[in-house]
## 1
Amino acid sequence: MSLYTSQSHYGQPPYSHYSQPVAHNGYPYQYQQPPPPIPPAPVYHQLDPVSFRREYTNRLSELNVNSRPIIQNLSMLAQEYSRYAEIVAQCLEAHIRRSYIKHRQVPPWMKLPAFYLLDAISKNVYEPYARVFAVFVVPLFLETYGQIDENTRSKMEEMLLTWRTGNPQSKELFGVPPQVAIERGVWGDSGSSHNSSGFYNGSGHITKAQVLSELEFTLGQKERALQANPYDSTSQNHVNVLHQLRKLVEAGVSQEELQQILAQLRSLVRGPVPQPSPATVTHANWQPQQVYSTQPTTQPPFPSNVPYPTDGVKGEGSHTSIVPPSTSTPTPALAPPPEIANLLSTLLKAGVVSASGTPQGAGATAKEEAAKQEIVENDTLEREASRAYRQAILSQPIRLTSADITRKRPQIVEFLYDQLAAQCKQCGIRFADTIIGKKNMEDHLDMHFRQNRKANQNIGRGHSRSWFIGVEDWVHDLTNAKGKGRADGVQRLNPKAAAAAEVAKRDAELRAMFVVVPNGAEATPVSCPICKETLKSEFFEDNEDWVWKNAVMKDDRVYHATCHAEALASTNSLAARLRFELATGRSRSTTPEAPSLRATPPPSTLRDSKSKSPSFSPSLEAKLAGTKRKVDQNDSTITGEADGTPPFKKLALSPLSAPS
Amino acid sequence: MTEEQSTSTKEWHLEPETEYRFELDPGTSLAIKLVRGHAEVFGAELAEGKQYLFGSECKAAIFTWKGCTVEISQPSTEYVSDETPMAAYANLHIAFEQMRVRALRTLHGSPAHDDDPSASAEPPRVLVVGPENSGKTTLCKILVNYAVRAGQGWSPLLANVDPSEGGWAAPGALSAAPVHSPLPTSSPANPLGSAATSAPTSLSSNALLPLVYWYGHAETKRNPLLMDRLIRNLGDNVNDKYDFDTEGKVSGLIVDTPSSFGAGTGASDHRHKLIKACVDAFRINVILVVGHEKLNVEMQRIYGSQLTVVKIPKSGGVVELDHTYRERIHNYQLHTYMYGQIIPAPPGITQATVGGEALTELTLAPSSTVISFDDLSIFRIGAETMAPTSALPIGATRVVSEMQPVPVDPAQPGSGLLNAVLGLLAPPNPDENERYDEEILDLTVTGFLIITNLDIPRRKMTILAPNQGSVAGKTAIVGTYEWQDQ
């Protein structure tokens, strides 16, 4: 009955993809025959295997251009029929192989869309497809790679790199051996070392998603370290800084800044892990981050991309050297023990997080201008389209009178159907057959994707009705601003809700921390040095010990984890917050950390004195109350869900986007 | 099974501008699939090849402008009609689009050249009035759906001031929400799409963010003063929103009203006051009178000089609904509010969607908790039973006025709280100086609670809440609605 017959195998909490347990074994590294698809219950499907195969093959044959809608439709179909994963795999493999043999004269990039489809299905549906594809992906990739031109190769390489962190836990999409095998085949034995720089420098373009995914990864590591060692204040500190950094990146920074953040990040991650020699790659330490340090030896051609201009100082190799030497940035070779806390300040000093927010590299500026240009063009197109619509509407000879309304023949079909030729096959919403319309439709399909994926991960999680929003939020919710609101139901996250969700999540994590009560100290009341409230001890069944919940140990003193984090944040994030506010050009009350919210008295309503309802959103109220409810265990379960301004749930970010 | 599937489905070929109407009996459900052509349910287009489920005694129609073939899983009360008022509704839509376009142009300061200079530059702010069973809510839904489908990024506000209808909340509520995508129809329990849950949804219409006030009664005549006040509160907030969001204002507003506004019998004085309240509060510029000659004349006489009053035909498809039906709908609504929309698929139908969402995501888990009597302050607005002011002896005044919040003590036997539906209020103004006596009349509702058990000796009560959020220290208002979880 369910659309999503494939249960997620990885026990991943839906909203925090970096807080996975340390030793996960969820990803089945199977390279032999994958298990047969779940036998379909005879009633529960509309297509039998034979007609499904026919249908899928037919649809695949349309995939001879790089069209996102087609790819998305095909992968949705794959998701819907994941019980026929085997069939999908066979069709896809056959399609890729056949398209070569049959159409020798056809441009070789023809295969790229099919690989993009494979990529999209593996990443978005993941289970069981990644497993099924892993069987043949190595020969297929290498075979294809040998047949195509340089341009297409570079695209394949780009895709290959995203596979390194392509699975839901940011690990290798098809497992380590296939990944290594492909990389060896593509770049030779020392492959995994020089390719990366080829990608990251050669293209010169670092995407936000890329940086974010690395950030997430690092954050995950640090948080695991923190979990293993709850009162390690250094890790705690790192986590905080990384969180801030992530917000910074999410808010949008220039190319150059991304580059530098990335470089810093890598040097930090590299620190504690012994540098593996590329020849002895093992699972344990084969991590994408490690390979970036080495110097590039080849640069695959990227015709469409301008090489990234470093700001005059540096060679193309090490990213870290981009940071002006005066900032005493650790070089990769002699990275000291990861002084991650310095990261932010170094970046600040280096001007990465510049106050003006203007990018400094010429290339970045050019790129930004190009992007602006595109926006302007889109705007013009959009304006023209809506002008045409307005004229058509105004030319309708209808007046708002009973007579006109009832007697005339409406031209409605033209407006509701003909004008909007493209239709979403999932929900029937229509879009104009124009550039803008197509773009909107792509966004819309993306949204379906995300929702399907989220639903997939959320099975069995239990949902509930959210509280209604308060007056202030309702009045100021701009989701329906014309042009911004989309007909497809993408609810924009207001920054407030996003920040609130972030805060709630962090809060829940902090509250889950505990300190084991020393023997004999059970009866002694211990109070948090910050808030002076007594720490509540309780019996923790997992390790059969009495623990203090929501607690961290620091310098032999036990603090409330929440108090401690708050205190840390208020000293650490001050500079960041300041920068951020300057950079975005306005003060956002909801920026990085909760304390700003908590410290600020609620704004007085700008209402006149007539009978009004000056109430506040429950979320704000809950946040205010949250400072008081520290130890109550229930709180940690409540915060995420129940305080809910509904847009919370929209907040899952997918670190990697399918290439297209 | 496959055989059964083929025998229980039936194909209907609909000519252009006809509709297939169906009515479901209690406990049955229906699946409809568009085989080819274009079809819509109250203005929301169906996607081809998807199974759409209907349940909870849904009475609806599949309309087609250009003809279509639909496959119906399980025939019920059904017929095809070629007499629909859809052409008139479509004309209305186009007329409103013209208003939106002009309003947008005025907002952007573009010159009006090719156009009737006398035309107003105001976006449509529409009040729909009409007698019982005239299809007001359906008309509102069609107009909103056409507006969001125009491809212009409109997101009109839909306001519901019919307390017996309840909109997205529970019956007894007045509410308004911006709509971004077509409102699906699947059951009378959420006729206008559903309010946000923690589940992911594909359609924003299934995650609406309404602003909700709690009136608490089905009948507007029960406490017209309170109705009046809540209407004005809702209107004030709508106008605040428009002041803040001038682009959004262009999409306009559609207000659905209770049938008591349209029924011109008996004590009609409060009726006119409430219509006046709506016209003022929402700055109405168009009144649509659905299929009622006398009401039309009445509206023309009162408002004809200041705004446009249009009489429009009512659909022949509307079903006369009796009192018990409405009661059952209230039960469905509260059940849906707490537990989500669950429609069992007819045999042989799988992969179906309810209102555009996959079945799995629609089940919700409310939370039942035991709280102390002191955790929640409960009020009733006005006295529990109240004679109309006109029925009081001459010269007599009320002991308790209609607008006075009266604390209700759960410890008192006969408090009437068992099984009562409570509107949980948003927190009052945190600034003590801004507070005033009747503030709780002006607070919005954050959710609904049901008191499922009262333990007077231990001063405890069990409440059913939509989620696990704490209600401690909050204030709630009790009305006359009751609900028992069956």
Note: The CA atoms of residues 179 and 186 of chain B lie 17 Å apart.
## 2
Amino acid sequence: MRIALIGNPNVGKSLIFTQLTGVGVEISNYPGTTIEMKSGATCVQRDIHELIDLPGIYTLDGTSEEEVLVRQEIAGGRVDAAIVVMDAGHLERNLYLLLQVAETGIPLVAVVNMIDEAEANGLFIDTGRLAEILGVEVVPAAAIQGRNIAGIMPLAVARARPALVQVPYDTDVEAAIRSLGKTMGASRVQALWALEGIEGHEELREAGKVLAQEIEPPHRMTIHQIIAANRHHMAGRIATQVAGKGAPPRGLDLDRLLLHAWPGIPLLILILGAVLLSVFLLGSYLEGIFTQAFETYVIVPVSGLALPPLAATLTMSVLLAIQAGLAIAFPFVFIFAIFLSVLEDTGYLTRAAFLADRAMHRVGLHGGAVIPMILSFGCNVPAVMAMRTLKTRRERTIASFLVTMVPCSARTVIIAGMVAAFIGIAAAFSVYFIVLGLLLATGLLLTRITPGEQFGMILEIAPLRRPEPKLVAAKSWYRVRDFLFIAFPLLLAGSIVLGLLNYSGMLALFEAFLAPVLEGLLGLPSYAATALVFGILRKEMAFETLVVLAGTADLSAVMTTVQIYTFAVISVLFVPCLSTIAVLSREVGYRTALAVSAYTVALGLLVGMAIHLLFG
Amino acid sequence: MQTSLREDILEAILCLAGEGGSPVPVAEIAAQIRSKPPTLEPVLTEMVREGEVTLQGGAASLTDAGMERARGVAHRHQVLQCFLSERLGIDGPSADQEACRLEHQVSDTTIDRLSEFLEKGGHGPRNRGGTGGEGREGGSRPLTEFPEGEAVTVELISCSHNLPRLLDLGILPGEPLEIRQRLPNRAVVVRVKGCDIALSPEVAASILAVRAA
């Protein structure tokens, strides 16, 4: 059987999924989408069943990518049974989704999760009564303690059945459902979706539209409002029958602190600053150890082997790529992933989004974009992936540009290693100011020229919770795995291509070809071109390659201060790294990825030229 | 045409700037009234000359005079929209558009009478319970105008077709809400059905509510 977990965001679906599947979890993308599909195998009485974790949604009849996908999975006959997970503390809102799932006629069982949290707040839920009303099995569960989780799968396999509960709609809507059923043979749910104009063949949708237009005027509401109001009403009625009143949650209301401008905003800056700083410090410490160890135990012995020149070049390219991958992925990305998962699971990220909403409006985004922007200081790759939370094309386009311009940890290495070391701290900060200033200017420009409508933020503030170590570890691991699978093959391929180009002497030709641009317009030595190209592979390699090509670690001996500064600014602005471009084209399409690359190259060269003209 | 565009601009700045009256980028104003910055710029320049608006670095703020006029327009819009949808039964989006056109022509006397009429008439048929929960200051106000901790009931959501997420979360006409938090920029957190929902200022401004009894 293929069984799907379905529920609102933040109801503990992922934790239940992790506990039910254990090993053998596969993460892939739904065909034609960027939405992740987690599926795993579970064993019930020696039969293997597939469990899938559908994305968290609020409604089945929406038009967002996730909502359409879940609707089609549930209604398209690809899923044999559904496990509807609800949060005991927010039963009414969660029942709204359950009622919609019930309408599709799919066999289901309901899980009332976080029953422990609700009971601690004095809220008791009569699951027996709920089962009677719904006409399906209801499991009271507490995933954090593992309570009753084991019983879910056997129940879903053996006892899942279509729910008996039915939303009584407004008489006009009911009449329309009957009429669509009689004239077009539509089922109840097909008729409803036709009325809302979201599914069904053209003829049916057209008929639905005509009926909806007749219903709307006397009700003074849109058909969506009428249907939603009826469902909410039903959900509310059920909730009051099965749930007690419950005391107001928690003694101390932390949100009084976290959500106010004071001290919320200073706290936000403090928390983010601390996270970035610790990622950077811990990351560079670990990176040093990893790189050093790899150098000593792998690279040095291998380069001692007497390999034929071509083989030596290829081996070295592969080893360099592995070293680069390890040095970024584990220290920076993994540590960042852990911090991020903690911030996410405590519910703090939604609060950060609320506080930063205003600032983000300035650059054509809203509070939701704060999350990718924060991420990008660590590494642009997970940041681009986090842009999925942005709903409109316009927002994703703007965010693509801004996120990839944020100086990530690798670019910080260039700034620290070149500018701070050879010119001074003040100069290093000025590079940050230039980059962040250009980022702001880009945002202001893009708000004007990017087509599409701007929508405000409507975001549920997730309840504050203690993060669950197991889930944090799992989430962080998924994030790193994601990064490894995309970045690693690319790094390998890119590194080999560069190695071969170098071996065949093409790189020298390329240098000679670009020499006029570099020497004339930017005032840089011609070998800097090679360094910049290597920088595409991994940002701080621009700096490392430059050192190798210059033949000395003391750059001030071979380059002037202005040259060092120009090179640093160009390589920081110039094209996001290869991994970022790859993820970008997967997430927002190759056109946007190309546009971002072209824009940043142009920006880097222009700013480089300006510096050369002004100071060179 | 020019007058109505100017009034639309004033209304947009009022809605976007929040209480602090912080400057609003021209692009945001354009987005709000579905126009383009190049169209707005000459009009804005004229408005600066007449002392209704100040422009600084591509962002506009209202002067005191501009603020007064903007409040007037916003009030006219609200009253008209309320009348059109509650009393005449015109559906939400059309009532909003209709109000947008009428607000520029109608006289203050008419608006005062209409506002009085609406208050006396009580609620539209949608209001559950019908316990007379009108704010004393004249009917419904945008969510952004209520103090923290206030219990309110949603009256009307303008442009609701753009905000389907509100329906999913249960923010519908007739639904009781509690204003949990608000920032100086007028972003608010409301509690609905036991869940806290954060709303951008422009979203919160499109939800009209009355104080609950």
Note: Chain A has four domains: 2-159, 171-242, 261-409+455-487, 492-615.
## 3
Amino acid sequence: MASVFHRAQLAVPVAFILILGCVLPLAVLLVFSVFEVDLDAFTLVPAFSGQSWAQMFVNPVFAFLIGKSVVSGAGTALLAALIGYPIAVSMTRLPVLWKGIGSIVLLTPLYTGEIVRIYAWRVVLGSEGLVNAALKWLSVIDEPLKFLLFSPFTTHLVLLYNNLPFMVLAIWISAELIDKRLIEAARDLGARPIDAFFKVILPLTTPGLAVGVFTVFALAAGDMMTPSLLGGTSGATPMAMIYNLFGTAFDWPLASALSLSLLVVLFAFATGFVTILLRFDGARAVFRRGAR
Amino acid sequence: MTELTRRNTMKLMSAALVAGVSFSSLPRKAFSAGTITVLNWQGYGTDEKWSVEAFAAKTGITVVHDYYSSESEMLTKLRTNPGAYDLVILNAARCAQAVAEDLLQPIDFSKVPNASTVDETLRANPNFSKDGKGYAVPWVWGMTSLAIREGMTVPDSYAVLADPAYKGRVAMDDDAIINVGVGALMSGQDINDPKDLAAVTAALKSIKPNVKLLWSTEDQWNKSFAAKEFDLSLFWSGGSVRSKRVSKLPVQFVVPKEGGVGWVDGLGIPSSAPNPEGALAFINWMIDPTFYVEWATKIGAPASSNSAALSALPADDLTRLVHKTEYLKTTSFVSGIPDDRREAFNNIWQEVKAFYAE
């Protein structure tokens, strides 16, 4: 007789992969965070020391960097939502062929490596880059605009550029699933386009918006390469510090404590954003419909 | 007598296989008097094919290599493989530690004739000696100091890093030890043991308005300098030579009155070396002007510790021009730094970086 699989049994392989790839490494980090370091022998000394965790609360540098990361991620997610939402919704109205072209245009930048994109931006925004050269040629400026490269402006511009496709895709998929008859019904009942948007389209696309916000926030807040290579002195991030602590400084306990602190804070904020978004009635309706 | 059954044959074959695998996985030992095993970074002078062949032709000694990818790995290999290596290349900052752990044996300088012209400042480096005995022969050296765009006023002090004339035109090396060293020099202190860490922090923070970027790789430095993103920077002496020679960048390396933050690599013989005589002969070859001129001009090398070798370079050679022997008088060389101090240096640099980012 064929054995009957329960839902729980079907989840075993996924659970196994999650434990192996996620829970186990985090457990290792937790263990490392209470170890001590012998720099002479370049070894980790097993000990139950709270020194690294104390640093998280005592040293203001860590709080500053984690806070900076949260602000950077939230700012990028907000801008991506504001810019990406109209793009995604308008893409649903395109003919099939143009939808295909639109998705290619949207995804093509992701096929080039991150380093390639970063150096391309340096060519565009540098002191002798395309933007400054064009502005000089148009006699708008005499001296190159210094803020264009190696500044917070550069970092946020490139973070937005890199992560916008994820926001657009998430909202677009959500918008495509809306039953067009609901919008027609709203219009028939006398709703103005703006009312139809706020009462029908926006609530029904909040799950996509939530996914987009979660994804973009996580990617932007956790990016090390962009701030390091384009941010100049503003490029200090917790990730860069973790990289340094695991590498040159050989302070694995502190690196582990910082990694876990960052993870907890970012996860808390991301979950908070998504929870707020999913409190919309429309979002609940979508999930109820999906559960049936 | 054991019967030669199929099972016993399999046991014998398995034992032979295990023994073979175990033997082959050991670091290659110098089994004959005509072989030495060198432990070094890969592609760092000692393993140049032409050089090894020339040395073998001259002495009959074959040079075999094993490599490390970090200084911690190098120390671990020395500790855990006694008798495996005849020669090790190690930084002065790590040498004192190796000597303290009895991992190196004293050098018989009478058997290294070329050592007679090794610069006295480098030979006197306290990290290379203990109780009046030398445990490593200084091999090559370099330093971090100021690099400025050609045609600009040549600075004579690190104070220029805080000069308002360079607002937003300075690049710093993203390295804690180097920056704390420069901060120490700016505040008139010893780079290896600055007593007033607050003064070091203040000195580094004072240059905030001028700092445009922090670089961590030579390629990053070259690209940003070529794009005219900065004019003044902390940079490596060897890096400035490569930037000028290979990338044709208009860079001038300057050592101010406070001196550079220097490093020096030495050639040491492990205490359990099977062939110390062969190692001494190879050390002599490594600081020989014949080898050095070829290495420096054809491949590119740091500055030789042997002033005779450095002088043998063409008069207009960039390596020679950048690494003037008089700089050694003012250069402060990085030593082994104790755990607590290293941690303090890292904390200072992280604090300064966060301050720059505000």
Note: The CA atoms of residues 158 and 226 of chain A lie 7 Å apart.
